[in-house]
Amino acid sequence: MGAYIIRRLLYVIPIVIGVSLLLFLLFNYLGKDPALVMAGKHATPERIAEIRTELGLDRPILVQFGDYLRQVATFDFGRSFSNRQLISDIIWNGMWPSLSLALPAFSMTLMMSITIALMVAYFRGRALDRIIVILCVMGMSIPSLAFILFGQYFLAYKLPEYIGIELFPISGYDMSFPWPYVILPAIIWVSVSLGTDVRFFRTAILDETHQDYVRTARAKGLSEQVVFFKHVLKNSMIPILTYVVIQIPFLIMGTLLLENFFGIPGLGSILIDALNTEDLPVIKAVATISCLFLIAGTLMTDILYSVVDPRVSLK
Amino acid sequence: MSSVRVTTADKVDEEIFTQNVESRSLWKDAIHRIKKDRFAVICFWTIVFYALIAVLVKSGLLVADWQAEVGQSYSPPSFDSFWKLFGTDIFGRSVMSKVIYGAYVAMSVGLVSTLIAVPIGVFFGAVGGYFGGLIDEFVVWFYTTVSSIPSIILLSAIAFVMGKGLLTLYIAIGLTSWVSMARVVRGEFIKHKSREYVIAASGLGASHLSKIFKHILPNVFHQVIIVGTIIFQSAIRYEVILSYLGLGVQGQPSWGIMIDDAKLELSRGVWWQLTGATFAMFALLLAFNIFGDTLRDSLDPKLKQ
Fold this sequence. Notes:
The structure holds two protein chains of two kinds. Helix content of chain A is 78%, strand content 0%. Chain A has two domains: 2-74, no CATH class; 95-308, MetI-like fold (Orthogonal Bundle). The mean pLDDT of chain A is 83. Chain A has helices at residues 2-30, 34-39, 45-55, 61-74, 87-122, 127-141, 144-163, 179-209, 212-219, 224-253, 256-261, 267-277, 280-308. Chain B is mainly alpha-helical. Chain B has helices spanning 2-18, 26-36, 38-58, 95-131, 133-147, 151-162, 166-176, 179-192, 196-203, 208-244, 255-265, 272-299. In chain B, α4 (95-131) packs parallel to α8 (179-192). The longest helix of chain B is centred in the middle third of the chain and has 37 residues, at 95-131. Chain A binds chain B through residues 14-15, 18-19, 22-23, 26-27, 30-32, 137-138, 140-146, 149-150, 152-153, 157, 249-250, 253, 256-257, 261, 271-272, 275-276, 278, 283, 286-287, 290-291, 294-295, 298, and chain B through 141-142, 144-146, 148-150, 152-153, 156-158, 160-161, 237, 240-241, 244-247, 255, 259-260, 262-263, 266-267, 271, 274, 278, 281-282, 285-286, 288-290, 293.
């Protein structure tokens, strides 16, 4: 297993280089000229050339790529075009609001969906199972933006009109006491992802019930409860674990849309603002950071995988 | 004694051969199974209906005049005429005709980006799975790299680079959705390349190209269809998110743009534009989800009972 982990760690290097290359090509080579973006519409050619030198865009492409790799390795992405702030500071400050929403929302979703999935998998084929599966498919078919808009409208605008108290503030996020501001977005997050999650977990659990070892367990006279909770559940944890760990990197991103709608100044909001102001270095930095988190997440999944399932190995 | 046994066996053989057991191919069998599922049939016709609307809009036979004013600004839904069922928008245009026009945008985004993603995914998956070795290493490295970039980031990066518009939507979504296809096709090719029929084809002197396209690909094509339906519907979802990020279509109505508009309208009590677009999208995605599930169940031999 130790050898596997080392080999798996080494495999990260070509992936990080590949991702950096792709992002570099997208932003520095194929994209808009950063100097033109920064200089604005009415810049003179001399000014553009000046910025070009300042940003190092007049150097050979390979040197620029080396420069970008250095940025990736040191997490030093320079300064924002729009407000000259250090990008590493912007990202560091954005991470906590993102986490304050993502962590509670993510754990709530997980607890609820695994509980419901266990329930419906246990009562598979019966009316309860059918109804919940239908509800899941319907939930999956509603666009997430509609969930956010309707949720915000009814719970943050309409509900206070009826009961007279404002339960869910939707602006004025306060980092020192974020809880009132994240309850409603967290509820919406849960309702957006519950359908997909329950359905995935249910399938993962049911896939196991067709395995040979389940038949063996039944044949030797174990009760249905023991078969289900001891044998099936343990084995279905592998796909469930993968699914969960792979989502962790996205927590840092928060959900782009929720943060934007509820005025939470997290990484998602930062990205949307940067897209609107064409703030290239910030877009590039947020993109890079989220890729790195995703790579780390996949790495963690694979290693956990080899811990829970000894059969796993790189070929 | 022995002669008796021979005759019984002969008789049984004869019975088997003379009995007119209809043999069904994978596809015939799948269609047979889907037809039995009434829900799936309804969903299939719903998708066909949307496709028909898309074609009619594209050819200018339907809602060519979606920009025309049919009433006052923001008049609520009424049963006066079909075009007022969903009310009007800020310029007094019929929300119904915008919803119908949106169906064209959604279906074309779904179709074109799927048509971009499928060949890319099939190509990489087939080449990697079939040849193995270094080529496979490269293919796996390549799609792991692409999938290491969160799709929303890659989408907005490509859209940002290419500028706004329908063409951008097609290409950005197409270029980001092929990874799942490559994974599935590669797995299938690895399974199939050592099967007897492929070895037999090699024995007959079939070239690599002929083995990939003539022999293996038809046998894994049902997987391509299944993954294709998933790519199609996620493309429709991405259109909404990209429109919200301001990277969507310009100068044309789309469900994404309508939902995006609704974020300012809702606080004024204008709920119909959001409801219209959401409902149209919900019906299409639901049909896709249910039909896709039935398709997978009836095409996957493992899931058949």
